[in-house]
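Priority: medium. Attachment 1 of 2:
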């Protein structure tokens, strides 16, 4: 049997990959809120990754909407499979730029952990309710509350006790925060840029969901390959290349080949454009990344134009289609109704949330409770409270695309 003393040498250390000098090096970390002894063969960021994967909030991602609440096909992404896709892409980019891939992997795995049920509809509804109290809901701030307060797994501290850089990346990967407006975030160096590892999460997230949503959009029948070809010139160019190379392939294989090429093209663009910016700015240390006046990870001008065109197409023909926008209105209404119900009847909240009432604003407690739920759980709660079934299967789902496209 192996004891701590008799472990082979290989188990007593972890290999340190050859990071670039501008990467966030393990020794650059500001460490944990509650100091812990180092692990014999896992780095601090590898331990953070494992803490995220073993959290309850991470497991709930399986039952949260990415785009489709009614998953008419088991092949549609949910928020967990989306998270895995983002992680794969982010690791690829990190490896090509020689960034700290352990930190990147952790940030990618945790990046959507604060999303409420029903995706964008949930976030909109909770934010609208909170704004009536001159407050707000933001999924990144909620993610920070989850890893700092709500995950209870360790006898010695609340939360997951993640390293500073992971907590910083959770809130700063997609936006900057003003210290005057959010003084409670003051410890996160709000006047500085986050490390490159955090900067790349937002774009890898968007690259992943743009490609995935074209795929799931066609699978759903809401958009057709012809609609994409007609309205998205960058897709049409690649489609013609694929058609020339594989004229007899089935349309679904041509689509798959197109999406594979688009993904590869966008990821390659991100790697090359970011590498060029880092070199042009003569960045040699992660502290110079922090001090640089703008974010250095980004697409080229051409890649960014394609990204924006794809996003605009998806809004017009998928997210704002009659099918999804009418679903979204019903789901927002469901969340708002429950929010107001629990605010009026705090005795209906679980005991652990009622216990917080003396110390926390009731609307924040209700918001936290609602945001943590999965799609399934909040629908069950609605049905229990309202005494009626809430069907999420949309009546026009799967009809001919032409009849449901674009509201
Ligand atoms: Mg995401």
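Attachment 2 of 2:
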């Amino acid at each position: 049997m192996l004891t701590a003393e008799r472990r082979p040498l290989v188990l007593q250390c972890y290999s340190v990959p050859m990071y670039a000098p501008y990467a966030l090096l393990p020794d650059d970390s500001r460490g944990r809120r509650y100091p812990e002894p180092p692990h014999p063969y896992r780095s601090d960021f590898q331990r953070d990754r494992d803490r995220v994967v073993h959290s309850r909030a991470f497991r709930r991602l399986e039952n949260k909407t990415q785009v489709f609440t009614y998953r008419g096909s088991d092949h549609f992404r949910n928020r967990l499979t989306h998270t895995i896709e983002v992680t794969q892409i982010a690791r690829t980019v990190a490896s090509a730029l020689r960034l700290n891939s352990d930190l990147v992997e952790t940030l990618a795995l945790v990046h959507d952990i604060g999303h409420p049920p029903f995706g964008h509809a949930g976030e909109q509804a909770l934010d609208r309710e909170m704004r009536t109290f001159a407050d707000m809901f933001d999924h990144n701030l909620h993610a920070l509350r989850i890893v700092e307060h709500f995950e209870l797994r360790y006898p010695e501290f609340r939360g997951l006790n993640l390293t500073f850089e992971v907590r910083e990346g959770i809130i700063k990967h997609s936006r900057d925060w003003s210290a005057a407006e959010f003084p409670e975030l003051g410890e996160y160096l709000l006047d500085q840029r986050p490390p490159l590892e955090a900067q790349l999460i937002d774009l890898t997230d968007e690259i992943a969901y743009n490609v995935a949503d074209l795929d799931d959009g066609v699978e759903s029948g809401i958009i057709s390959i012809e609609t994409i070809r007609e309205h998205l010139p960058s897709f049409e160019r690649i489609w013609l290349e694929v058609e020339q190379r594989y004229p007899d392939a089935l349309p679904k294989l041509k689509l798959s080949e197109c999406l594979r090429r688009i993904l590869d093209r966008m990821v390659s663009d991100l790697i090359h454009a970011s590498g060029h910016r880092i070199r042009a700015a003569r960045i040699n240390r992660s502290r110079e990344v922090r001090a640089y006046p703008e974010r250095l990870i980004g697409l080229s001008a051409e890649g960014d134009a394609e990204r924006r065109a794809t996003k605009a197409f998806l809004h017009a023909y998928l997210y704002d289609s009659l099918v999804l926008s009418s679903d979204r209105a019903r789901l927002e209404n469901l969340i708002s109704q429950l929010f107001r119900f629990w605010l009026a009847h705090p005795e209906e909240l679980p005991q652990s949330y009622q216990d917080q009432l003396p110390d926390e604003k009731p609307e924040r407690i209700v918001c936290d409770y609602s945001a943590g739920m999965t799609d399934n759980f909040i629908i069950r709660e609605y049905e229990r409270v309202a005494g009626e079934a809430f069907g999420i299967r949309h009546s026009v789902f799967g009809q001919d695309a032409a009849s449901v496209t674009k509201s």
